[in-house]
Amino acid sequence: MTDTAVDTALLEVHDLYASYGPVQVLHGLSFSVKQGEVVVILGANGAGKTTTLRAICQMTHTRGSVRVAGHEVHGKTTPEVVRAGVAHVPQGRGTFPDLTVMDNLEVGAFVRKDREVKADIDRWLEVFPRLRDRRSQVAGSLSGGEQQMLAVARAMMGRPKMLLLDEPSLGLAPLVVQDLFRRFGQINADEGVTMLIVEQNANLAFEIANHAYVLEAGEIVLSGSSDELRNDDAVRRAYLGY
Amino acid sequence: MSTRSTETPPTETPPGTNGDQAAAARAKVSESIGEGYRWLDRIGAERVRNLIALAGVLILFAIWAIAKDGFSLFVQRTFDGLNNGFIYAAMALALVLIYKATGVVNFAQGNMAMFGTFIAYVLIVEQGFPTWVGIIVAMLLSAVGGAVIERLFVRPFDPTNHLAITIVTLAWFIILGAIAGIIWGFDPKAFPTPFPGGINDKLTVFNATLAYAKLGIWVTIIVVVLLVNLLLRRTKAGLAFRSVSSNLESSRLVGIHTGRTLQFGWALAAAVGTLAGCLIANNTLLTPNFMGTVLIYSFAAATLGGLDSVAGAVVGGVLIGLIETMAGGYIGFIGTDLALASALAVIVVVLLIRPSGLFGTPRVERV
Known about the structure:
The complex is a heterodimer.
Chain A: E1 9-20, E2 23-34, E3 38-43, H1 49-56, E4 61-68, E5 71-72, H2 78-83, E6 86-89, H3 101-108, H4 117-127, H5 129-133, H6 144-157, E7 162-166, H7 174-191, E8 194-199, H8 202-208, E9 211-216, E10 219-225, H9 226-230, H10 233-240
Helix pairs in contact in A: 3-6
Chain B: H1 19-43, H2 46-69, H3 71-102, H4 109-126, H5 131-154, H6 162-184, E1 202-205, E2 208-211, H7 212-234, H8 236-246, H9 248-253, H10 258-284, H11 292-305, H12 310-330, H13 339-353
Antiparallel strand pairs in B: 1-2
Helix pairs in contact in B: 2-3, 3-7, 3-10, 3-11, 3-12, 4-5, 4-6, 4-10, 5-10, 7-8, 8-10, 11-12, 11-13, 12-13
């Protein structure tokens, strides 16, 4: 978190509705994420967490306002939202299984025109040495944890203002998940990239998040700082399990 | 790659009985099989192993064939097989490009190539363009045509609805055939060769002849395949194309305009197809259905090589050309009448034994 930009909202979502065909999933969501913050959205299966992230990237049919760094992106195409500075790591990693690790990283920088792509690839291989060992393997042959690292590194290759992470812990061993979340905190601190994380693993998410929202049936039912929500009885029973 | 488990199941006959020796023998056999597998594993990637197995089969066949009909006839048949094989390779490459882009087999590919060849015919024979210039202009026009077909008749469909898109390609197969019939009629037309075509322009190797015109086809197609490979491997557009064919949704999420990228695949495929048509038309004469048979051999080539592999298309094309000629030449009852059936037999056998082909990626769904 940087002190200078504490109060500027990087992402402002206002009255967001989303639907798949006739089924409406989000019912007028409003929330914001400040520059440099880590924000987590908690919620049970089917609450609309994934849809929220997809709606921000304009990958579903949506209504309502989504502003990234002050620019309205509603009605734009997904590649245009990406160019506005949003990187989305979808559920199930979303790597390119037939491409090598190097190609995955290179295509992550697709929207960039500068000449520092090679240097950035080296830097992310430094951050994730396991990827360096496997740099000429195809992504489909990596383990789940390695794929998640690759997905995050690839997303960061686009030098985004904001990183959306959709259930990064899904299907990974607890130790791997802990390591990943520590790295997310590190990346947030080092790169100043704002993060919006959708998670069911509330314990870990609270450790790196500044702020949290609880989503139920397509509506935000609770919001507050991580510490406030961690001590909230309802949240504790539903998401922390004690 | 993990080594395969070849241990005998633990539920064997109890020790001390007669079965003991048999079990030991079985264990020994399965141990040596396991040893063989591990040896194969050490050789490297699966495709390398496939290539080695393939080379072994080809060498054995060559020895048999030379013993049967002599060396010079074998060389001649190899040349003949390669002549067709490189054309099939180019058409299979076009099929693979569209399969990678759109996930369907493009049934219109043959007639797209035929139409492009007619355009080259008009430019060269009727308008007097130099042969190469006419072919290149026809390739460019075909690329535009392929891009237009993609934009107007493929992109509006849900990209996961492969059946609908396949029907669209079938429709274009019929439409292009009909339009060509109306414009140019069904009388066979002579098409010029861009290479030296005189009666003495040929090489003689071990009493077998190879016309420069044929050698030119080989070289041209090898160069085009290398260029397409460079384009896909070394350029940003190529990287985008490979990304889109690997994961459409993630491609959007890294900012790739997927529609334009797929269109690029269609344009490239149309141009390569037209080149193949122009190169073979001198041999077959030009009619509105002259690419029909070629397309079937190319389907066989792409199936054999793996529908999503550029290298596979080329190897598959050359192999199918060789199989066609060798089966016709060495197996008496096949002759020329059943040669086409040999291509279909290859399709069936490959789909049964290895549906992803020699070089293709087996479909794995992650859940």
